[in-house]
Design goal:
single chain, 102 residues, mainly alpha, 2 domains, 82% helix
Length: 102
Amino acid sequence: MDALASFFLENQDMIYIVILSIFLGIEVISHVPAILHTPLMSGANAIHGVVIIGAIIVMGHAKNDDYLALSLGFLAVVLGTLNVVGGFVVTNRMLEMFNKKK
């Protein structure tokens, strides 16, 4: 418990920045018009490829007995891949709306 308390005390500024950025992100996203939401989200999901590459690098540098880093890296790769595929699926559905019907 002391280690957890000391971690929060040492990184208090960074924790505040993360919490404020979460609130800022929620505020910005909630004011995006519905017509722009789909293209912005599909573009943001495609950028998630950086997360996949970073997770693969973290897993590559992790020691074999560091199960926390390996499991978090694997989880990040799986979720990042799902997000990228979902972004392309949403973009494809959005572009299909503009095709002429036969």
